[in-house]
Amino acid sequence: MLFDFYGEILTERQKEFFDLYYNEDLSLAEIAENAGISRQGVRDVIVRAEAAMQAMEDRTGIIRRFESQRSRAEKILAAADELKAVNQDRYRDAKLAELADQISAEASALRE
């Protein structure tokens, strides 16, 4: 997730090595051979990239807030579904059904 949120703060080389290592599953040796540098050099670039992204997350907390928001949206959706079921079983109130649908729609939008 760090790369998804903070990848743009990295240099092109850091992005490339990070992507090759984590997303393309190339080994440090394979990346080093392709880049014409040492395996340790590749590792240093990746470690610096991770550190930069983690430092940004530590300062901003965007991922932490995103995860919290997503969890809360799931709870809201579950509550809205339960409200719909109770309404359908007991009350059959059109306004209550409409409001539950509206809550579900808004919570779904928050998840995205």
Characterize the structure shown.
With 112 residues, this protein is mainly alpha-helical. 85% of the residues lie in helices and 0% in strands. It has helices spanning 2-6, 12-23, 28-35, 39-60, 62-91, 94-111. Helix 2 crosses helix 4, helix 3 (28-35) packs across helix 4 and helix 5 (62-91) runs antiparallel to helix 6 (94-111). The two termini are 15 Å apart. The model has no long low-confidence stretch (mean pLDDT 97).
Largest sheet: none
Instruction: Give the helix proportion (percent range).
Output: over 70%
| Secondary-structure class | mainly alpha
Distance between the termini: 15 Å
Order of helices and strands: HHHHHH
Number of strands: 0
Beta fraction = under 5%
Low-confidence stretches: none
* Rg on CA atoms, Å: 23 Å
Provide a count of the helices. Answer: 6
Shape: rod-shaped
> For the residues shown, what is the average pLDDT?
97
Oligomer designation: single chain
Summary keywords:
112 residues, 6 helices, 85% helix, 0% strand
Helix-strand blueprint:
Elements: H1 2-6, H2 12-23, H3 28-35, H4 39-60, H5 62-91, H6 94-111
Could you give a quick summary of the protein structure above?
Helices cover 85% and strands 0% of the residues. By secondary structure, the chain is an all-alpha fold. The protein starts with a helix and ends with a helix.
